[in-house]
Amino acid sequence: MPWVVSRGMRIARFALMNTDHNEDSDVALGVASGLAAGLVGALVMTGFQSALARGGVTSGVKGTPSTEKAADRAARLVTGRPVPSRRREAAGEAVHYATGSLIGGLYGAAAEVQPAVTAGQGAAFGVVAATVVDETLVPALRLGDPVWRAPAVSHPYSYASHVVYGTATEGARKLFRRFFGKVKDGADQIRRSGWTLREALRQGAAMKQTEELARARQGLGEATADPQETLGDGTASSRRGPSASRQTLLLAFLLGATAGPRTSAPITAVTWAARLGLISVKDSPLSGLASNRAVAVTTPMAIGELVVDKLPSTPDRTQPVGVVARVTSGAVAGAALAGGRSASAALAGAAGSIVATYIGHALRTRLSRALGNDWAVAASEDLLAYGGAAMVCVAALAPERERIAQD
């Protein structure tokens, strides 16, 4: 254990001494990416510890977990009453995930200012997190035994768990940072193009609006003749190179994934995006998605699903009918995002919907049982599904850095 701590601190010290500056840093994006990544890291850490427990390996710590003690203390400070015994496990899990997310947010901000803190693909961060939290703050706040009284096995157990947390957080942070960066770039392109909601509502998916956004995205002096090419059709993407195709397919996958929590999320997002001229499906089999009639169908459908999802009689999303509906929504939305003619984007959207359906079902079941209340989890899914779908549509307008560099 001393060797692990020494090695980890040496790596962290080297990272902090490295003075490379990140010219593209954005602390706000870093915090947002870190908060989301920290949540993922905490989830992976929990899975890792569960796997160890199935093999008979535990921390050796007896009694009430430190997370439950922290939750109980917080409840006493806020309400003057302890956490009810039947809620302590859920409260402890909430503290675990909240702490993981907050620490991840700090890490994300630090990574923007000083990228060297990501040394070891997040392993150094995990070692530092274990040292600061488990080995220092927990005993200092009397949430656990002092270091010298804790079971000897608890120390390597803590460091191993936090190295897993750190590497998982770093991997997720990179993905979230790239996506949030695309969303920001897409929003900047919309702003620079002169697009306004008032004009979009008045003109709809008029070609003038689409061409202005196309010029902004491509950085060209003249409008591109083929709007499908500028907005990411599968065929046109292959002409621009494999990087564009990968970006389009990844966004289609992410858009389809929003169908996992809410069937109508991706199809509602693309109909509004097409109606407002943010994506082009002109002269494609999906051109009808840009019409007022399509919006008039998908919007009430989305509102209805927000209500129906909360009803106890609502069938399981993994039932065949639910899966087929989600796959259809994801496939149509993925194809529309790519211009309406890309079979590969449709497949990517369908794949995203299938993955998110089953993973989302498992997570919602676990969280609802832990919290003893499904409503909060359902409301979080609402925000994730519809907010995520909207962000993907905006991210699709971001310029591709490889193309900019070539131009």
Indicate the topology.
Layout: H1 2-17, H2 27-54, H3 66-79, H4 88-113, H5 123-140, H6 154-192, H7 197-203, H8 207-218, H9 227-230, H10 234-240, H11 242-257, H12 265-275, H13 292-308, H14 320-337, H15 343-371, H16 374-395, H17 401-406
Briefly say what this structure is.
The chain is mainly α.
Describe the structure.
It contains 17 helices and no strands. The chain has helices at about 1-15, 25-55, 65-80, 90-115, 125-140, 155-190, 195-205, 205-220, 225-230, 235-240, 240-255, 265-275, 290-310, 320-335, 345-370, 375-395, 400-405. The longest helix is centred in the middle third of the chain and has 39 residues, at about 155-190.
Helical fraction:
over 70%
Sheet-strand content, in percent, reads: under 5%
How many whole angstroms does the radius of gyration measure? 24 Å
- The number of distinct helices, counting runs of at least 4 residues, comes to 17
- The tally of beta strands, per DSSP, is 0
Number of domains: 2
**Helix and strand string, N-terminal first?**
HHHHHHHHHHHHHHHHH
Q: Major beta sheet, specifics?
A: none
Which structural class is indicated by helix and strand composition? mainly alpha
Instruction: Calculate the terminal CA-CA distance, rounded to whole Å.
Output: 53 Å
- Inertia-based shape: globular
Low-confidence parts, pLDDT < 50 over ≥5 residues? 1-5, 14-21, 216-244, 402-407
The quaternary structure here is single chain
Query: What is the residue-averaged pLDDT?
Result: 82
InterPro entries: DUF4126 (IPR025196)
Organism: Roseateles depolymerans
Protein name: Putative membrane protein
